[in-house]
Amino acid sequence: SSDIWATGSDADAFWNTGWLGRLFTEIYPEFPNQTEDHPLAIQMGSANLLEFQTTTSNGASMLNDPDVMYQLISSNYVPGSNDPPPNTYGGEELAYVRELDTSTFEYSEEIFNAADAGANSVTYPQTNLGTQLAVTAKLISGGLNTPIYRLHLGGFDTHANQSGDHAGLLQQVGDAVSAFLDDLSA
User: Which residues, including other chains, have CB under 8 Å from residue 51's CB and lie 6 or more apart?
Assistant: First the structure.
């Protein structure tokens, strides 16, 4: 069922591209050969990127903490060689990997700079979703032009005590979204 949700396919169809990936292909037809100045999407809290999958790449960047991401990438980034890749299938793959390496580094810097320039004007709940929405608001206020943020709150797949568990989860959603809207308004 989650593959159907992520791809937008019928139950009897098996697609390898996500519904947002197909949208990105329409809006950004040159991606990933020509990257945008900002990540097309940022995903926090889970690693299911199928909805962002295009026929050639994935349009989302994973993020938990902008500072940690930037430190990890910048301290391990090795600039690509100036030598052109060989004119072989392996050379094409090498060029693609170099391109991904460069765009990941550049995006991590854009994300870091937006987080550094941004600020939250409200206090968020100390929950996983509250933290994700606080980071999202900070990136928006810092000028990051990423159009899609995908956040994650698990725990809804329950088989016992559903009314109690769901009430608590929906309270988390309500509190975090309320803080987010107040922050965006400010």
Answer: 5, 6, 7, 18, 19, 20, 21, 150
Those residues whose C-beta lies under 8 Å from the C-beta of residue 124, and which sit 6 or more positions away, are 130, 131, 133, 134, 176, 179, 180, 183
Pairing of strands 60-62, 148-150: unpaired
- Give the C-alpha separation, 176 to 127, whole Å: 8
DSSP class of residue 172 equals: H
CB atoms within 10 A of CB 115: 21
Q: Quick one: CA torsion of 53, 139, 73, 101, rounded to 10 degrees?
A: 40
Structure tokens at 45: 């809290």
pTM: 0.80
Question: What's residue 63's pLDDT?
Answer: 76
| Torsion angle defined by CA atoms of residues 171, 66, 38 and 98, in that order, rounded to the nearest 10 degrees | -130
Q: How far apart are CA 135 and CA 40, in angstroms?
A: 16
Q: What's 15's DSSP letter?
A: -
What's the pLDDT at 144?
A: 95
Contacting residues for 86 by C-beta, under 8 A, at least 6 apart: 94
How far apart are alpha carbons 165 and 122 in whole angstroms?
A: 27
Residue pLDDT, tens place only, 124-141: 999 999 999 999 999 999
**Quick one: tokens of 68?**
């940690």
